[in-house]
Amino acid sequence: MKRRLFLASGAAIAAVAAHQLLKSNETAIAQNRVLNLYSARHYDSDNAIYEGFTKKTGIRVNLVEADADKLIERIKSEGANSPADVLLTVDAGRLWRAQQENLLQPVQSSTLTAAIPASLREPGGHWFGFTRRARVIVYNKDRVKPSDLSTYEDLANPKWKGRIVVRSSSHVYNQSLAGALLAKHSPQKVEEWARGLVANFARPPEGNDTAQIKAVAAGQGDLTIVNTYYVVRLAKSNKPEDKEIASKVGVFFPNQNEQGTHVNISGGGVVRTAPNRDAAVQFLEYLASPEAQAIFAASNNEYPAVKGAKVDEVLLSYGKTFKEDPLNAAVFGKNNADALKLMDRAGWK
Ligand code: FE
């Protein structure tokens, strides 16, 4: 009896011990699960998203930050041994390029297809948009009446001669805009448009979108084409001179009586050779969640991709609703190269 009891308790102890071992193994595995994120984003607030993801899934996020072209080059040179699981960057043009380089793999996720509008994701699931950025007309309020403005196409009208400043055609944002026009008009017509636009330039292209807004506020040009978040950034700045610049300009959403304003994305996809594929898909799904969406969009004053997620108040003050061009981001991403060629021919430096 004594012996049997001893045996029984021995077995119980062994069972408990085995269970403990299993549990600690599971914890160890969970703690060892990682996601290697290659991101061209560099916002402190993104850290809150990574922490939220780790809290929810137990998966640690290893972050590699660099500009998009460097990250794409790095994944290419690392080849089959690349630790990269997810590539995050801005502009459909760049995501398209990564896809063309065969760096991304298709993902089928009902969570992602339900949350992200169809126009903001690549139809094959190679990449998904997590924020929306509208490319709008920003004008000097003393020199331009909103009623004078209508469409991107109208900016080639000679009435704007010597009044337009815009950044270089070498920048992907303008290539995507011209790429979107290529989906609507013949290449000849878009080239004609680019020629007309160039003829209306107040100066040769220089500087980034912020520099264009500053030039418009200073009266070096009457209007420009920029992404909304650059205006919001100036309006929210702690520097009085930035606020002053923002107060001098207005935001106009073009093509409202037509197909809508050009909307680009920031987004990402799962790397083709991802060693942690499941974690990568989980991460993209997490980015589409309401809590991540609010932080992700707010960090750069963008519109969330997921409808119903919270939108920044200052951004909203420039337009509560506007009609968006429903053109799929993959279409203008793909058109980038052709767009650049015709902008070149039109003399858009
Ligand atoms: Fe930008």
Describe this structure in words.
This protein folds into two domains: 35-132 and 265-310, D-Maltodextrin-Binding Protein, domain 2 (3-Layer(aba) Sandwich), CATH 3.40.190.10; 134-262 and 322-345, D-Maltodextrin-Binding Protein, domain 2. It has 349 residues and is α/β, with parallel strands linked by helices. 46% of the residues lie in helices and 15% in strands. Helix 2 packs antiparallel against helix 12, helix 6 (172-182) packs across helix 14 and helix 9 packs across helix 10. Strands 1, 2, 3, 4, 5, 6, 7, 8, 9 and 10 form a ten-stranded mixed beta sheet that branches. The termini are far apart. The radius of gyration is 25 Å and the shape is globular. Residues 1-8 have low confidence and may be disordered. The relative contact order is 0.19. The protein is built from 14 helices and ten strands. It binds fe (iii) ion.
> Can you say what the CATH homologous superfamily of the largest domain is?
Periplasmic binding protein-like II
The CATH topology of the largest domain comes to D-Maltodextrin-Binding Protein, domain 2
The CATH architecture of the largest domain is: 3-Layer(aba) Sandwich
User: What's the domain count?
Assistant: 2
CA-based shape? globular
Strand content: 15-25%
Number of helices: 14
Give unreliable regions as ranges: 1-8
Oligomerization: single chain
Rg from C-alpha positions?
A: 25 Å
Distinct bound molecules: fe (iii) ion
C-alpha end-to-end distance: 95 Å
SSE string, helices as H and strands as E: HEHEHEHEHEEHHHEHHEEHHEHH
Highest CATH level, the class of the largest domain: Alpha Beta
Sketch the major β-sheet. 10 strands, mixed
Helical fraction equals: 40-55%
Mean pLDDT across all amino acids: 92
- The helix-and-strand class reads alpha/beta
**What's the count of strands?**
10
